[in-house]
Amino acid sequence: MIQALRGMKDILSPDNERFEFIIETASRIAKRYGYQYIETPLLEETALFKRSVGESSDIVGKEMYQFIDKGGHDVCLRPEGTAGVVRAFIQNKLDKKGGINRFFYYGPMFRYERPQKGRLREFHQFGCESFGETSVYEDFTIILMIKDIFDALGIGYRIKINSLGCPECMPGYRKNLIKHLQDIQDGLCEDCQRRIETNPIRVLDCKVEACQNLLKESPVIVENLCEECDSDFNKLIEMLKSHNLPFELDSKLVRGLDYYTRTAFEFVSDEIGAQSAIAGGGRYNRLVEFLDGKPTPAVGFALGIERIIELVKMPEAKRDGLYLGIMEPEAINTILELAHIQRQNQKVYTEYNKKSLKAHLKAADRLGVKKCAIIGEDELKAGEIWVKDLETKEEKRIAINQFN
Predict the structure, then answer these.
(1) Which of 170, 325, 361, 383 could lock onto 351 through a cystine, CB 3.0 to 4.6 A?
(2) Coiled coil located at which positions (predicted)?
(3) Residue 57's pLDDT band (boundaries 50, 70, 90)?
(4) Cα dihedral sign for 240, 244, 245, 250?
(5) pTM score, two decimals?
(6) In the β-sheet with 395-399, what is the strand arrangement from edge to edge?
(7) Which CATH number fits domain 322-402: 3.40.50.300, 3.40.50.920, 3.40.50.800, 3.40.50.720?
(8) Is residue 273 over pLDDT 80?
(9) What is the mean pLDDT of residues 138-149?
(10) In 3D, which of 59, 38, 41 has the Cα closest to residue 50?
(11) Angstrom distance (rounded) from CA 367 to CA 371
């Protein structure tokens, strides 16, 4: 028997209902914030992610589904959503037009990593990207949007924030950090030792306990910010406080992608174990430029659907829709005509086979419909249909041409 590949998973009931609810809820809220839907390909040039995510990142170095296609092109399945949206933004010359552009997206991403609960090789994200707005108020507004999404889904959270500085203040901090890392280099894991030269900021994100202990005394980014970055970060803190959002400063929060600058944030949950991040993002003012576009400020986020699917508080299920069935084969054409008409306004289930009334009612109840309508021998002769409201238990026979 052929089975799904390791780290890949079918989405069936009851997860499919939660999955749809998450997408519908997040999309509705994103539209209220002025975001429009964008769809990008699952397959992109590998160079896109090497230049954006960063060749020193684990995603590019270890986790991408990368291959040479039949045309000899180096391609990969997208490991994250932002780079593809930025590529589309540049390719469609939106960077040249200027103004504010805000997009939301959802869909599958792929990373070849060790599967674990809430973290698969094919996983799904919902994300938003905002282009053209320099103000830190946009960073705050995105955080506020995520809050609204999680509140609507009934998910508890805490917010971690940090600032990664800018090209003006980062070089001095990077120099201090490298010096500190070289002093403790012998005690760091192999990956961290390699990153000291390639991307020292990423060392702060290491999850190895021995490294975390050694990094407790490492220089703190927010104590090395330039005046503008410091001012923006303090404004963000003030706004989070004024809106009573639960947050904490995390000097080790650098995110796993190389393109972030200034604001970085994560929403975390205490209900899903050690890997507690359920959403994250930040500002990436130089990524459009890195990918050959016109310099454009940008900020965005993504949330992992599999990460939160078990945390979602679903609304109370209500009976919905109509079940149509027959007790006489001659009534099938009438039922099919009625089903087509009723589907203009509601969900309709049709049973083509002759069954007893008890069997029809049992099937209708299992499907959770509001009404069950049946044509039997007597109804067929009289040009009527028997209808039962499964909520009120009311039963009646009405003329077929009056059925609605």
Answers:
(1) 325
(2) none
(3) low
(4) positive
(5) 0.87
(6) 348-354, 322-326, 371-375, 384-389, 395-399
(7) 3.40.50.800
(8) no
(9) 97
(10) 59
(11) 11
Residues 379, 386 contacting (CB under 8 angstroms): yes
**Model pLDDT, residue 275:** 59
Q: Judge whether residue 256 has pLDDT over 60.
A: no
Measured distance CA(309)–CA(306) in Å, rounded? 5
Domain 15-169+225-308 has CATH 3.30.930.10: yes
What are 159's two structure tokens? 């917010």
Segments making up each domain of the chain, as ranges: 15-169+225-308, 322-402
pLDDT tens-digit readout, 323-332: 999 999 999 9
Phi-psi map region of 282: left, alpha, beta (phi>0 left; psi -120 to 50 alpha): left
Nearest-angstrom CA–CA distance, 341 and 330: 19
**272, 278 in Cβ contact below 8 A?**
yes
Residues 180 and 188: their CA atoms lie apart, in Å, by: 12
* pLDDT above 80 for 115: no
Cα dihedral sign, 150-155-158-164: negative
Six-digit token string for 46: 């590998």
> In 3D, which of 203, 206, 164 has the Cα closest to residue 181?
203
| Neighbour-count burial of 335, counting CB atoms closer than 10 A to its CB (0-12 exposed, 13-18 middle, 19+ buried) | buried
Known binding-site residue numbers for L-histidine: 80-82, 111, 125, 129, 255, 259-260
pLDDT (tens digit, 9 = 90+) per residue, 378-404? 999 999 999 999 999 999 999 998 887
Do β-strands 277-283 and 298-304 pair in parallel, antiparallel, or remain unpaired? antiparallel
